[in-house]
Every structure is written in C-alpha cells, then in structure tokens.
User: Fold this.
Amino acid sequence: MNLFDKGKAGPRFIDSLQTGENVSWFYRVQEIVKKKTKNGDDFLDLTLMDKTGRLPAKIWNNVEEYHKLLRAGDVYKISGEIRDYRGKKQITVSHLRAIASGDPGFAPGDFDESPPFDSEALLAETFSLLRDNLSDPHLCRLSEMFKEEYGPVFRQAYGAQKIHHAFAGGLLQHTHSLLKMVLAIAPHYGLDKELLLIGALFHDIGKTAEFNTQPALETTLAGGLLGHLVISLTIFLEMKNKISDFPEALSIRIQHLIVSHHGEKEFGSPEVPKTKEAYLLHLLDLLDSRLNIFSEQLKGGEAQKLFSEYNQALGTRILLDR
Ligand SMILES: [Fe+2]
Ligand SMILES: [Fe+2]
Assistant:
C-alpha cells in the first residue's frame, strides 16, 4: 500500500466528503497562499475545487517542497484527512503529487464547475422579469444589450472570490435576488423601480473582469487596480453610449447607484448613497450577501455543535441548530 492508497476507493467529490475520513483523490488547486503560524512556522493555505464545490486545505509539513511543486490551476492527487475547522470542512494534507498519465479515475471533466442550480432557467427568469417590469425604452434596450453581451458569462460567474456567493453562478443568483427584492420593496416606498432594476443588474457586473476563477482563482490587473465598482461603471457607460439619446440625468442616477452600492467610502464606494434608490440598493446588496454567508455557514459544520465558530464577516457566532 503506498501513501496514496489510504481511504475509500472511487471518486471522492468535495460535496460528499465527511469529517474524519481519509481521502486520496484528484483536486484542482485554485489558490495557494503561504502563511505563518503564530510560532512563525510556514504553512500553505490552499483552496481546492472540483465540479461539486470548493474545499480549503492546509499543508503543515514539507511546506517548501510543496510550495515549489504546486502551481495554481493544476490538478494534483491529494491525500489527507477531512477535519472540521470553525464549522467548515477542510483537508489537512499529508501527501500530494502531480497527476500521472493513466492515473485511474482521473477525468478532466471533473473540474468543470457548474452552478448548483439550473442557471439556464434562472438566467431566463432574470431577463423575463426585467422585460415585464421595464417600460422606459432606453432601459429596455440596455437590458437587452446586457443579456446579449453578458448572458453567457453571467451564468458561470462567481459572485465573489470569497465571503459570499463565491461559486459558479453566484453572481447571477445574487443579482436575481436583488431584482426580486427591488420589486417587492420599491413600491412600498414609492421608489423608482426601473432605475433600481437597472442599477441592480449592473452593480456587480464588473466582477466578471475583477478576478479569474479558471484555471486558478486570481485577481486580474484591472480588478486589482480598479476594483469592480469602477469596472461596472465602465461597462455601463460603454453600453449606454451605444444607445442614442440616452438621457444624461438618468445615466448619472444609474452611475450613482453603481458607485455608491458599497455604502461607505472605506468599503470602496467613491460616493455614499445620496438618493433613496441608492440607499435601498446598498442595503439590499448587504442583506443578500449577509444572508448568503449564513446559508454557507449552515451548510457545512458539525451537526452536534450548537454554535458556529466566530465568523469575521458577520461579527458573531451563529446558531447552527436548524
Ligand atoms: Fe459590489
Ligand atoms: Fe453585490
């Protein structure tokens, strides 16, 4: 028995791994970060993925050797134990090696990540919802152009690299969710529904150019130097410039929704919300991202625990008893 033979036989996809089990299977390394423990020892903090999801991994031993060997985006045969860390599964890696030709069980298609829902149906629903609720001809045209140019990308895009909606289709799910909430809440306050729908549609589209997820997860040059608010703004401006006679005041109001959606300057918004619509979009964005963090936290975790570990984004431990 060699070092890679331990554990259950057959495919060990990420969504089926159980705490306590030893696995030895193929995973793509999406991200590699070298860090230091409190004692000053080096360790590697990895993100692994396959078509069923993502899994954090830690390497405590042979750090230098593995750091030289590993390249983000490549697939490795990885052995280790699944443990619970702060209510989430992760793998403590004992060994890993590059894949070899003819490795039994290795299938390149196992690393094509697909959204955890019917993204074709959700995309269609998103644009039919826009068609049904937009009457302004400029905004209708904008929504159609968005669908043509970004529809396919939108279906696969992550909503973020980490924290919330960090999976294929996450951006579509997040945006669809904002559109639904706009339709529910805008009439209650007598707000401009159409302005809000377009603001929500464009607000995070810059994320499609802010980072890459395949083969590795990494921030792009534009993402690092501009950030997604500015990229979203640019995408909006380029698109609306193709529509003749687009009203300038309407354009500025949409731009304001995009640039102020993070709510505060310290969170990357060059301007804070100064209209009711912008304020609502900011709060809905925050609400949807926070509730998604709850959902993700509730998904993993050990059933026997009552509370999660401290969650940085939420600023608290959350109740795991469903
Ligand atoms: Fe954003
Ligand atoms: Fe957002």
